[in-house]
Each structure stands twice: as structure tokens, then as C-alpha cells.
Amino acid sequence: MLGFGLSIEPQLWALIFTMVRIGAAFVAAPVFGAVSVPLPVRIALSGSIAILAMNTAHIQPPDQVFALATFLSVAGEVLIGLALGFILQIAFAAPMVASEAIGISMGIGFATTVDPQHGTSTPALGNFLSILLTLLFLSVNGHLVLVELVVRSYTLLPPGAWLAPSQFENIVIFGGYAFLAGLLLALPVGFLLLCLNIVVGMLSRSAPALNLFAVGLPASLFVGVIALLVAMPAMGDYMLVIIREGLEATRHLVLG
């Protein structure tokens, strides 16, 4: 019942209520939450997965729509969905941190481009690493793992349940992983550029008449491009570690 003498089909109301958590997770999660994904596609995908969740878990929506308990239940569903997607979004922030560390050392920190996932201007190197991380995420079926975790969350976090304070604490602690993973991702190239800057600094002290900008900037750009080319396999392997850590944190939030 809707209240106020109105009624709604129980199956339709259960489907809409189930779509709340799934839709919130897709809004916050990478890939699904990209601005390039049309809204009708998100709604259709949320509805399809909601039907799957209704057939695998016993989901009991509130009896009335316009009730305080219903609003609290919907708020809890939105919070759980946003938490599930936000954890992966934290892991996907690591390439941006790495691009800032590498781009400043290479001298291309000013080069920006439009991020297709967020629709904002981001460093060109960070956009490249984010696309690479997204392709690796799809190649290891990370999107399917996320859908599985969202569906399984209805069993361990039934409607009406709220996240415990310890779960919020785990999300905050995992937020620091984005900075750690970004620095480790930039470590091979960043260390080589740091050594180059030390050499250029020693040259500038030994030969003060040397034009540092005419020598240092082209050298940093050339060495940075070569270092990225050589270190890309190792960076790709560590991106798989970032994906695994993000999915593991999401699984820990759902399964405990």
C-alpha cells in the first residue's frame, strides 16, 4: 500500500525497492558510473540485476511507501549501495595520484584532457592510466564480481540493516590505500626521474652557466617516456593488485 488510500502492485514495489541499492552502487562504482553510460542503460541494468536478486534472496520491502520506516529503509539501502561502489572508486583513484607524481617530475603536469568517465579535465597521463586500469578491470571480470557482491549483500545485509561503525572505519582506512597504491605505481618511473633530477642539480652546481631549463626539461621528458615504456609491464601487474585489493575490500564490507 502507498498510503492515502492508494495502492501499488506488490511485485512492482519490491522491484523498485530492490533497485535502490543496486542503482546507488552503480552510481558510485567505476565503469558503471561513467558519464558515458546513458541513464536508460543504468536503469535497465539495475532492473535486470534486481530481478536476479529477488530470485536469489528473500527481499521483503516495507508495507507502505509513505512511512517513516520506509524512508529510513531506503536511506539505508542508498548508503549500503554507495559504500559498495565507493570502495572501488577509491582504488581507481590510484592512477591519478601516480600521474601527478610522474607528471610533475616529467614536466607534463600541465597537459590535461577530458576524462570520459567523469567528464572533467584530468592529467593526460592519469587519463591514460585510468583507461588502462578500466580495461584490466573488465578483463578480469571485476564488473561481474561487483554484481555478485551486490546481490550477495542482500543476504548478509538485508533491507533495513545499516552499516556498522567498524565498517565505516574500514572504508576510511582503505581511503589511504589510494595514496599508497598511487605512489607505489609511480615508484619505478618516479625513482628514475628523481635520479635524473639529482644529476641535473649536480650539473647546475658544477656549471652555473648551463641553462638548466634548456637541458633539464627535455631530458626529463625523454627519460620519462622511455621509463614509462619500460616500466609499463610492471605497472600493469601492480594495477591488477590494485583491482584485487579493491574487490577484496568490497568483499570484506559485504561478508565481514
UniProtKB/TrEMBL annotation:
Membrane topology: Multi-pass membrane protein
Domain of life of the organism encoding this protein: Bacteria
Pfam families linked: Bac_export_1 (PF01311)
Cell compartment(s), UniProt: Cell membrane; Bacterial flagellum basal body
TM ranges: 12-33, 65-87, 93-114, 126-151, 171-200, 212-232
Stated family: Belongs to the FliR/MopE/SpaR family.
Protein's GO biological process: bacterial-type flagellum assembly; protein targeting
GO CC annotation, single: bacterial-type flagellum basal body
Record keyword Transmembrane present: yes
Protein keywords: Bacterial flagellum, Cell membrane, Cell projection, Cilium, Flagellum, Membrane, Transmembrane, Transmembrane helix
Source organism phylogeny: Bacteria, Pseudomonadati, Pseudomonadota, Alphaproteobacteria, Sphingomonadales
Organism: Stakelama marina
Job of this protein: Role in flagellar biosynthesis.
Protein name (database record): Flagellar biosynthetic protein FliR
